[in-house]
Amino acid sequence: MKRTTIVGIISVLLSILFLYAAIEKLVVYEKFVRQLLQTPFKNFAHTLAWFVPTMEITIAVLLVFYRTRLAGLYSSFFLMLFFTVYVYYLLAFASALPCGCGGVIEKLGWWGHLYFNAVFTLLAATALLLLPRNNNTTNNKSLATS
After folding, report:
1. DSSP code of 145?
2. pTM to 2 decimal places
3. For the chain, which residues make up each domain, given as ranges?
4. pLDDT, tens digit, for every residue of 7-18?
């Protein structure tokens, strides 16, 4: 399988993950805010309730186009790394475990969530390592054509 195909598949998976997560957070907005109020970031709960889904949607869009894919993959990697470290921190140190996630991911349980995040962090890192660094490519290919 070509490197660009693998990077494209990983980009699609990450894009779907971020779109799903963002939409889920916005659909259950009040629940998401209540959960954020139970975290170490409670002072910023209302800001984060809009900022996180907006960031997830932005990253999903960055991943779609070849010209912005590198920025999307770096953003994906660092956001997933942050989420992974945060879940690990909660598992190791928190007495209560509020989950700001929803839908299918919420059903995984905390350890499942940690592994899920770690896998997607590794996928983003893999795509970054495999992404061809061709500075001469200036066309605006979408996922379907890359």
Report:
1. G
2. 0.83
3. 3-128
4. 999 999 999 999
